[in-house]
Amino acid sequence: MVPKNNSIIFKKSERGVSILIVFFVMVIILAIVLGINVIILSEMKVIREMGYSVIAFSAGDAGLEKTLYYDRKIIPTGGIRGVCNICVSCGAADCINCTKVGANCSPITCTDCKIIYTSQINNKSFRVVSTISTLSDTFQSYGSYMNISRAVELNGGDKGGSPHNQAPIIIITSVTPRSVPSGIELMISANIFDPDGAVDPDSVIAHIQNPNETDIDTIFLTDAGSNNYVGYWTGPIGVYYIDITACDTEGNCSEAEDI
C-alpha cells in the first residue's frame, strides 16, 4: 500500500510539470505572435513607402513637364526657346530659388546654361536641373514626398548640326495596375513624340528592372495611334521599376526612368 503522503507528493509534482508545460507553450505562442506582428509592420511600411514613391515620382514628372512647357511654349520675343527665361516668366513665387549659370544663359540664344529651380505642390515638391549645351540638353527632375525622392530624367540626343537633332519626348508614362498578384498582366504605356522628326517604332522599349536597376526583362511597345505606345508584361509578384527608351529615325534617343 502506497503511503498517503507519497500520493500527495506525486500530485503536486504533476501540477508543477503541467504549469511548466503551459508556460513554455505560452512563450512559444507569444514568440509566434510577435514574429507575425513584426512581419506585418514591416510589410505595411514597405507598402506605405511604395505609395509615397509613386507620389514622389508624379511630382518629379510634373516638374519635367512644367519645364518642357516653358521651354517650348513660353518663348521670349526674338528667342528660340524659353528655358533660359524661366526664372523671369515663371516668377519667384512659383519657381523658387531659380538660378542660372553658364557661358550663354541669354534668353534669346540660350546655348550653354544650367538652370535650377524648385517648386511646391501642396505637400509635394520637385527640383529641376536643366543643362543646356550646344551638343545636347538634359532635364532632371527630383520629386519629393514624405522624405521619399524619385528622379525623372530626359536626355536630348546629340544635336550635331543635324536638321533633326531633338530626341523624342516621352511623357504621360503609366503602368496599370500598379500592384497585382503573381501572373497578372501589366499594361505599360507612354505618349512619345518627336518635335522635329519621326519616332522609330522599332526603338520603343520598356526595360523591366529590379530595385537595383538591373534588367530582368525587356519588351517592345507598339504604336497604338495618337503617339501612344503600349506593351504588356506578366511576371511574378515583386517590386519593379520600368525605364522606357525611344529613338527617332535620325538616331537621337531619350529615356524615361523609374516609372
Please provide a written account of the structure.
This protein is 29% helix and 37% strand. It has 259 residues and is α+β, with helices and mostly antiparallel strands. The chain has two domains: 9-155; 162-259, Immunoglobulin-like (Sandwich), CATH 2.60.40.10. It has a five-stranded antiparallel sheet. A four-stranded antiparallel sheet has the order 6-7-11-10, with no helix packed on it. The protein has a four-stranded antiparallel sheet with strand order 9-8-12-13, with no helix packed on it.
- SS strand fraction: 35-45%
Largest sheet: 5 strands, antiparallel
Quantity of strands, as a count: 13
- State the end-to-end CA separation: 84 Å
Order of helices and strands: HHEEEEEEEEEEEEE
Structural class estimated from helices and strands: alpha+beta
Number of continuous helical runs = 2
Could you give the topology of this structure?
Blueprint: H1 4-73, H2 86-89, E1 96-104, E2 112-121, E3 124-132, E4 137-145, E5 148-155, E6 169-176, E7 185-193, E8 205-209, E9 215-220, E10 222-225, E11 228-234, E12 241-247, E13 253-256
Antiparallel strand pairs: 1-2, 2-3, 3-4, 4-5, 6-7, 7-11, 8-9, 8-12, 10-11, 12-13
